Fold:
Amino acid sequence: MQSTSDLHVAMIMDGNGRWAEERSLRRRDGHQAGGDAVRRIVEAAPDLGVTDLTLFAFSSDNWQRPPSEVAALMRLFAAYLERETPRCLEQGVRIEVFGRRDRLPRRIAAAARNAESRTEDCERLRLRIGIDYSSRAAIATAARQAPNNSVEAFRAALAAAMNLSDPLPDVDLLIRTGREMRLSDFLLWECSYAELYFTVKMWPDMTGDDLADAVSDYQRRQRRFGRLITLGEAVEELRNGTL
Ligand code: FPP
Structure:
């Protein structure tokens, strides 16, 4: 049985395009509806024991999508950051954007800086949003730049390569929506021991209750980190009915 607090949940938000196509809408309408789902998930997370929520919004490979879709996504990210910052401040949500900054439209870079500085003292939830992020590229940069062979130095270099102020904690639970079951270059180092949860729901349909279902599935799992279960843990699991 897993702890019900201090959870780091990471999410691959997939299925916006198919959600729109199924409704004869434009792909950008699916992304728009995806923005509403982000708001629902951010609101629900703290009450479920989630202290860190890391979202994959735009991978470095997504630049290969049609320019009109990329432009619509960029406008949506900027609008989200501009509009949600006051609400996040009220809700105690600290916003951070990670990934490459040098290729982002100026409006997003400015909105990210503003959201980060205004919410930096918020402590209820740390919301990190990956935009122009590639885990492989970040790991490769960190490997070149870490000053010595220690894991701590590598973690610090990885945070710097992701443009984060401090190292990302290991992911406890990785959720991917939209029926696909792959990692797509997301948090490859940080997900080393993550529990994986895949749902057939398309991202725009995700609600706080869906997040609660995923967290309760996680809580029933047994994490061993490569070791064997101890006798004490087995007794505890038997008591809880989870063994
Ligand atoms: C993948 O679905 C989703 C994306 C590439 C964009 C994710 C963006 C959002 C959820 C919008 C809101 C986000 C924020 C942070 C405001 P897809 O388009 O590849 O779906 P498909 O596989 O059905 O085509």
Remarks:
- The mean pLDDT is 95.
- Helices lie at 16-22, 27-44, 67-91, 106-119, 135-145, 151-161, 208-219, 231-240.
- The beta strands are 7-12, 50-59, 93-98, 125-133, 173-176, 195-198.
